[in-house]
Each structure stands twice: as structure tokens, then as C-alpha cells.
Amino acid sequence: MEVKVLFDGYSELKDNIYRANCSCVLVKGPPNVIIDTLTAWDDEKILKALQAESVDCKDIEYVVCTHGHSDHIGCNHLFKNAKHIVGFSISHKDQYFTEPCFQAGEEYVISDKIKVIATPGHTMQDVTVILNSQNGIIAVTGDLFEKFEDLENEYLWKSAGSDSEELQIKNRNKILQIADFIVPGHGPMFKVPQRYKNS
Length: 199
Ligand SMILES: [Zn+2]
Fold this sequence. Notes:
Homodimer. This protein is of the alpha+beta class and about 200 residues long. Helices cover about 15% and strands about 35% of the residues.
């Protein structure tokens, strides 16, 4: 398994215009997985990035969107052969799957190295992808974490919108304990500093 961050997410306010796009991660398997697919205007960007990795859209087996916001689901339609996991919603074409039940805390196991777990807070149906890589545990969290700086500045994740700050704090802490690295929703991947680990 190889984990490639295709695009670092960002969010910034400049000249009174707020711009944001998500982090997008490719897991080269098998199974091939893409996590968060930018906005609906980013087809070309994604196709080019996949081409550079010698991966074809039709060879992606799973699309996982950490939640249903427009900057995380935009290019899902490129991946017609994949099962789509969008937050707690799991589907392929018009078929919807009721298992596993994320609401009940169940996990979606994609392989022995890849699983999807419920981490609500930013929205009530956020999920995080846990990747057991050679270099350690990588958590692709979507907007559970906005960017590295929000570890010290809670305004950053709270101002990005939080449907339950209480749940988000709980799940942020859970991920900080599990993960060696975090790919946040709107910033580059970072290593979890030791001081955030409960001893
Ligand atoms: Zn976002």
C-alpha cells in the first residue's frame, strides 16, 4: 500500500474572498482508494494527478468522502466502478448499504490496512480513514482537523463550522491518540506532536 497526498487542502481569506479546497489522498493498493475529491470544478486536476500516478479512474475501488460538503465530494462522479462512502452513506449506483452502521460505532473495513471510522463533530456524519502504512498510522480526517495550526488555535476549526463542538473535541482527541500522522481537511499532512499523546 502506498499513500499519496495528491493535493494539500487550503482555506484562506484574502481581499474579502474566502477560498477553500480539501486535501485529496490516493491510496494505491489494491484496493485503490481515493479520499475526498475536491470541488465540482476540479475534474482535470484530479485526472492529471491520477495519470501521474498511473492510476485510471476505473481502477478506483472505493471513494471515501470524509463528509458531504461540496469541497469534498465534487469529482465523485469520475469513479463509476467504485463503492462510494460519503460520510455515513454507503452506495454503488442506486444501491444503498445499511452495513456497517456508523451510527452504532461500527467500522468499515476496506482491507487489513484500511478502515473507515465514524468521527462526527464538524458534521454529525463525518468519517475518518485510518491507514496502517509502513511509516505509521495515517488518519485522513477531513475537517475534524482544519489544519495543523488548529491544534493550538481552536478558533480555526470552530470557525470552519462545527455541528457539535463537544463531539468534535472528543473525536479530535481520539484521533490524536491513534494517529502518527494526520491529513487535515484544509492543510498539509503533519506529524502528531508527542505532547498531544496522553501518556
Ligand atoms: Zn472542508
